[in-house]
Amino acid sequence: MARLLLISMLFLWAGSILMVQGGDPTLFFEWNVTYGTIAPLGVPVKGILINGQFPGPNINSTTNNNIVIHVFNNLDEPFLVTWNGIQHRKNSWQDGVLGTNCPIPPGKNYTYKFQVKDQIGSYIYYPVTAMHKAVGGFGGLRVNSRLLIPVPYADPADDYTLLVGDFFNKGHTSLKKILDSGRNLGRCDGVHLNGKVAKGDGKDEPLFTMEAGKTYKYRICNTGIKTSLNVRFQGHTMKLVEMEGSHTMQNDYDSLDVHVGQCFSVLVTSNQEPRDYYVVASTRFTRREVTATGIIGYKNGKGAASSELPPPPVGWAWSLNQFRTFRWNLTSNAARPNPQGSYKYGSINITRTIRLANTAQRVDGKLRYALNGVSYVEPTTPLKLAEYYGVAEKVFKYDTIPDEPPSDNTKVTLAPIVLNMTHRNFVEIIFENHETAIQSYHLSGYSFFAVGMDVGKWSPEKRMNYNLLDAVSRQTIQVFPNSWSAILLTFDNCGMWNLRSEIWDRHYLGQQLYASVISPNRSLKDEYNLPEGVLTCGIVQGMPRPPPFSS
Fold this sequence. Notes:
Layout: H1 2-6, E1 9-13, E2 16-20, E3 26-38, E4 45-50, E5 59-62, E6 66-73, E7 81-84, E8 109-115, E9 121-127, E10 139-144, E11 159-167, H2 172-180, E12 190-193, E13 208-210, E14 215-222, E15 229-233, E16 238-243, E17 246-247, E18 252-253, E19 255-258, E20 263-269, E21 277-283, E22 291-298, H3 316-323, E23 352-363, E24 366-371, E25 374-375, H4 383-388, E26 413-414, E27 418-422, E28 426-433, E29 439-443, E30 448-455, E31 473-474, E32 476-479, E33 483-490, E34 495-501, H5 504-508, E35 512-518
Parallel strand pairs: 3-6, 5-10, 11-14, 13-22, 23-28, 25-26, 27-35
Antiparallel strand pairs: 1-2, 2-3, 3-4, 6-8, 7-9, 9-10, 11-12, 14-20, 15-19, 15-21, 16-17, 16-18, 16-20, 21-22, 23-24, 28-33, 29-32, 29-34, 30-31, 30-33, 34-35
């Protein structure tokens, strides 16, 4: 029996090769990134495909799986993809953002190697280069629970991924030119559901099929570039069970606001008359509401979906109140037998408070977005490589922004932004939005506790209303107009980590920064060495590799 465990076994599973070698299984993928014509809204657009697919293939993994993805860039421009929500413990080398990785040059390839560890949940991947995300290169990434670790609900009849997002018919090249010229993108042209929109002519193929009397899991993610969306199922309620890697208290909802970059998992029971129904996605907080639909069909159902769609909510106060209903399921198992609520974050002393205020301002006549008065610019050498090779001072300076917003009349400057974070410090970050547009932020490498959110200006007294018991641990948080949001986390994952606006025109024009977390021990116990085969660029290209950590 012992010898059998050492024998490698190969399986073809979900478009990948699964290899088991007596340890954690490894999934192998080969992705060819190409251009191709897509038409989510009926207008042909030059899109970005992965293995000919838009959206890209779904990555179906299980906790502790090792993921190996060979990416071949067949575009005529650099390309790079990030794994939104995967924490890459000790391994920011695989995060796939421009502050840690060189983009893959045209005609070249790169191999990502990372482990999904214990992050049971729903995530996405997408490109971070230019405006590629606007036309594809994105897809779902799920991390399933191992059989030995139960989840707090019965196994669904099936598990579906629903990617919703706004769409611009101009194409990524034109969108980039608009931003480079200093202008705003304006409103989207429409909304898609898994790259499609139902026409309502009776000829639409179902996005998904359900059998009467059964319960199905839907992983709903907003892969758009700037628009919050409200998602609802005609005639059916949704039971929220998971959010970005955390099991939640199982409340029922008629509709859910899903902000850019966020993922929710819901259970939908097919308890209605067997026929077609619409799943509906509508833009939120826009002057002109845009609605798109997709078909959910019942097996052996008869009858078209009703043209009477469930109405969307009105106003952002409704969305704020919905956020307050989200609670962490403290008694549920995580990826280990201990309950999620065993980590008592509310009793830890805060060692640093960082208040980040977003602003929009013109610099030399062109629109830029900034955090605390500085608009991020991408250096030609990735920050992490510069730091690792010992040439950081030639690329960036640490702590170029203060921990508090400057006065309102401060002129915006352009520079890389890197916060020097002390390893294992427990930090409070306040996102302050004094603008009239909603914000959405993501922090790579971590999960944080979304403890507070309210209208008006933040002050220390607001901590009295923080949720210090069962705030959901997640990676993405919205900030409503003229409001603030607060998160708490321990910076215990060494590496260079991107805190970015998920509103992609803001990201492109400077609303992002990096947090550098360095272990004083310089040890493999805290951070992995530079991988073999990593792409180098900028001033480190051709330099000898620094000596690796030995222990």
